[in-house]
């Protein structure tokens, strides 16, 4: 069997399904997903931080692209617009950072676009622009730890591509009474944060974001396609194994 | 109109690179060009990103904010290593020694701090997660891996035990495969959404 | 030991102590060491980008290339220019063009990497484990070949079912709103065990590396102190 063609088949089917369901849901219907308490935790924590006059920090990860987890950088950027609420702007305590120049530049454009789309420029001026605390994972950690102490961080949200060092950032915030939400994609991040972070989305769960923060037709189509392709893949694995045993494959 | 043009640019670049997976030989010259330009842009983006770092520290220093002294230290370190590297090249022995003798101790020490944090975290596992299937599996996996890595069991002269240990070592791979497959599937959909401009990370809409 | 080795050793020792002081809480020494590290790394990073990317991909073709090669450099030069001038607040929108280019390139690499780098190799490994040729002649006994393949398939499928987004069609209460449709819910219970075991194993791996780093630092500090004060 030529697995190369299977790969193209998966890409093709996924792309076609994505278009079909997006068009379908734009006319009628939608897809209901499970309730994720961790996301509720993130919402509550950001609101509480705003009310207490504390800072909301968003970390977009260490890398825009990586071989092991290629989609995480783009995913963190897709979540960002949904965290840039008017209230967060008004408080002036929203900080977005990353350890990669490209991530920070993309974030800068997103922040600008968000206020250009309706928020006032004066509000945006109050908000700290995206920051790069260090250009590598360890220098970012070294740069961000003192920052967390210097600013009073009420809620920290971790997204994108980062490893076990995320535990140090999380501990620094939690030890001062701050709340931590983590979308952990990398296996090392999941393992390190599992026993400390209550509001944790692990592995593929992270792709439920940004849709559960503010639902769009496109998000619902994406969820459904992911569920359909995943179920198809599970079935194919079982059938493939059976055919292999029978010597057909 | 501008939105359409940007979406077209994203789609054309993306589809050309994707087609390159299929028609590697035919598209090789175009692909080299597109990827080289991409690397160059990422490099320049990296430099601009460093500009953000410098700007942040300069602002803190000149506005006399809390931590201005530390910003001065960071800026001095930055200027020194940048100037030295540019004048003498990054292959100069002093530059190499400087980076190695700062980088290795600090990175290893941060990892050492992580050891303490991990130990503390492991003690809070059940308090954070409660007794769930995930936490029970986690405990089992951690203890199993610890026992196997410590070579607690003597395999010599006992082929059955050796086979059992090899089998147990393979169990975590099953969950890992499932997680990686899920991540790949999520990545595929994120990539397609950006390619079709459903998501526009460059900011337009 | 030469004077320069000793001097570098002392710098390493001081930085190690300053960073490890974070264990007793955030303090001025940790902050100083952290900022020295950030500054030096940022400068080094800039030098590496200039030497390994900007010079070979931009400056060198412009200086040493043929006229044809120089003409091809117009497009990236324009993209770079747009990216740089977009840093002026009033011209920020110009940055969308080079970033749209990067987004397209990255999206394609994400799709290709996800499918041909992970999806296909991982699926293939699960299916290939059931190859009957592995049973004989094989270095491993048949029970292990069968058990390995079975666990791999069950673990992978069950783990995947844990990530199902959709929920039960008619949930009776809030708890059921967090549950998957029946088949996926049952499979996901097994999946949770497998995910837990995997993360537990990885946790131990990270912990071991971190403890080794801690031991390495302690040995380094001990060695340096005995050399400085014990004459050794």
Q: What would the average pLDDT of chain C be, to the nearest integer?
A: 92
What is the CA-based Rg of chain B, rounded? 26 Å
- Tally of helical segments of chain B: 7
* Assembly form of the protein: heterotrimer
Average pLDDT metric of chain B = 91
Write down the secondary-structure element order of chain C: HHHHHHH
Any idea what the shape of chain C is? extended
Strand content of chain C: under 5%
Largest interface: B-C, 122 and 117 residues
Percent helix of chain B, as a range, is over 70%
Largest β-sheet summary of chain B: none
Low-confidence stretches of chain C: none
Number of helices of chain C: 7
Q: Could you give the order of the helices and strands of chain B?
A: HHHHHHH
What does it look like?
The complex is a heterotrimer of chains A (249), B (205) and C (232). Chain A is of the alpha/beta class. Chain A is built from ten helices and six strands; from the N terminus they run ααβααβααβαβαβαβα. In chain A, strands 3-2-1-4-5-6 form a six-stranded parallel beta sheet, with helices on both faces. The longest helix of chain A has 29 residues, at 217-245. The relative contact order of chain A is 0.16. Chain B has a domain at 129-185. In chain B, helix 1 crosses helix 2. Chain C folds into two domains: 1-72, no CATH class; 130-232, no CATH class. Chain C is 75% helix and 0% strand. Chain C contains seven helices and no strands. In chain C, helix 1 crosses helix 7 (182-229). The longest helix of chain C has 48 residues, at 182-229. Chains A and C meet through helix 1, helix 5, helix 7, helix 9 and helix 10 of A and helix 2, helix 5, helix 6 and helix 7 of C.
